[in-house]
Amino acid sequence: MKSQIEKANIEKIKNYLSKKDKNMANFLKIAPEFNLKINTFTTVYQALIESIISQQLSGKSASAIYRRLCSLFNGNSVRPLDILRADDDELRSIGVSRPKISYIRSLTDYEISGKLPTIQQLHKMENEEIIDNLSQIKGIGQWTVEMLLIFRLGRIDIISGKDLGLLKGFAIITGTYPNLPTSEKMLEYAEKYWKPYRSIASWYLWRACEGI
How far apart are CA 62 and CA 14, in angstroms? Predict the structure, then answer.
């Protein structure tokens, strides 16, 4: 089953965003080619572990820690049984903080209990329903679920007001950097100019942020 992002006509969306927003139009002239890849082989459990590790870290740092986590086990993925067998010292040794270890263990309990929805079930759920369900897990808040919605489920109209990279990217394309907007201001702007393609706009804001 292809996601909304995978099925999207990106050139058509870029034209839409350019017509709606001159700031985004100017950035799109110099932006890299859109290449957000949805990892269709990642389970919900694995995707949430990646999102937990990514909390308050750069993408590069988070990816390195996740790779080291996988290497503790079979090198490709992380399963609930792996986390149950690993002790905290092992996880700390590869850079997973104590709070995140606690969050990952809570997620593992949720998965083992059968409460964690499958990817097929999530595809049938609305965004808010998914956020409400997964936010019951310790350490998984709205930002973490929003990353899952974009990068695993490929939902096309998501933006996170709690993401520092997005706030920086927004300031860059609107010419206010280093002064950052409030979350409310960015979300209002996104609602007005980028809906219903806020995930696509978010990807470009992250690219803008990488340039500083």
Answer: 29
